[in-house]
Design goal:
heterodimer, A: alpha+beta, Alpha-Beta Plaits, 2 domains, 4-stranded antiparallel β-sheet, 4 strands, B: mainly alpha, two-stranded antiparallel sheet, 2 strands, 70% helix, 1% strand, globular
Chain lengths: 176, 395
Amino acid sequence: MSRRYVVGYFEEDGRLIRAVKELRDQGWAVADCFTPYPVPGLDEAMGLEHSYLGWVAFVAAMVGAFGMLALELFVAVYAWPVNIGGRPNASIPAFIPPFFEAGVLNCALTTVGALLAVCKLYPGREVPADLPRTTDDRFAVVLDADQAPGAADRITAALKRVGALEVTEQTPREAL
Amino acid sequence: MSGPELELLSGGQKRLLYGLLGLGALALGVGLATHSGGVYSGILLGFLFMLELGLGGALFLCINATANARWHTVFRRVPEGVAATLPWAALLVLLFVWAVPHIYPWAAPGFYTDPSRLVGGVLIPELKAKEGWLQPGWFSLRAVLFVAWWAGLMSLILRLQRGQGLGGANHAGAIRKLSILFCVTFAYTFSVASFDWLMSLEPRFYSTIFGVYCFAGVMQLGFAVVLLLTLFLDAKGAFKDQIREQHRHDLGKWLFAFSCFWAYIWFFQFMLIWYADLPDESRYYVRRGGLRADVMALVVLLRFCVPFFGLASQKVKKNPRILAAVALIVVAGHWLDLALMALPSQAGGMRNLYALLIPVGTGAAFVLLFFRAFAKKPALPEPDAAYAYSRRYLT
């Protein structure tokens, strides 16, 4: 059986943050928030843990950079040594720009890829829930409707109290 | 005045600073009295170190004003106090100008007519074009004009800044226009000044990126100094706990970013000269020991490796102790960087105690002047409309 969710819509990001704080203070677990753009301070209000994406980026950058350095050394020293102005074959200063560029490139691509994978975003993916205008000008907070007996009504009342424009109940295709 | 006056510096700290100032003055006196060759490059470094500390604060203010930034308003008195030391550093230019004939090889009489620099009775082309530019009189006039322009324009901006928000006064537009003027003119004048003051120590050496390199150093130094003084004053309670994690994080990000920028410029000056291997250019690095140079490696370690790896994580950029330690290392790295640019061509080379003691003295003078300027005004610019924003902004 799919889960039921209560969705509260807000007009401003500030109101959403206040609502999330208030709901969590009252002991309700916030499942997720949907906003048209990244809202600073929302992660803190939701109590999200620090993302590990930074480590993914770091490792990817190191792999890209040192992979390129290994390629450069392999090509210039072992596979096809060429005498360029009498410089040593393993001329590190000349290898640094590609080392840096490959680090940046691999870091960027892998981070975006990891982000998409973690968020399960891939071509042909179905929209899990229909939350109108949250890509436009509405800010939605989503809470599990069955987290306690009779939670749906109490959450709805709480959302109305903290200034939600509209509160709906939804049963999305998959858990949020 | 209401309430007990905040004691910004403890008695011991004041004594230490006056002691260091006295030590620098003593070193200068002893050096001049004994006609020691090293004292003149000490004067150059002492002048440059103090001037660049002030310029760092001035650039911090002007860049933020140019961008209409308000995030720094809570601690804006810090860069203002730093920039307020500029007129004093500018006075040192008189000592520097007096020392020019002792510092620069081209200022010695007969430099441009020395047979070793003539080919077929004509000055070698590498120096021909520089002959008119590098003359003591014109050089000194430029130096005086540059520092007078920086100090004068900055004083004007600071005067407007001081009245900002008082009695409904709003000078934001004028401050912004003057700040843009400062930034644009600074780019040109500081490039020429670094060609003059540091690059011409080795008259045949030339590097077009040299001005940018010096600028990158000053920018990084400015962020480090503002960060260091802000954290120090905050620990003393000067800002009444208005400095939040957000401010520390953003200052840390600035320091991190300009450490990368500095390293980028450092590397590209080095790499292109290494690659082209033209005698006049590569001699600069050969003199500093080539690839295995320990001092050069130490400069890169202090100015890039420590801030880059030290400040990479978000958590660390919010930690005042680590931030302060990294900022202090960057300031020391800046001094070492200046010493490495100036000293190898000078009498005594890198083993020159005057080049350490005189900048320490002028650095202590900078700190004392900063606290004098900072104590004159309320620590928080509360009347400024941007203050409320700065107290609670989020990124």
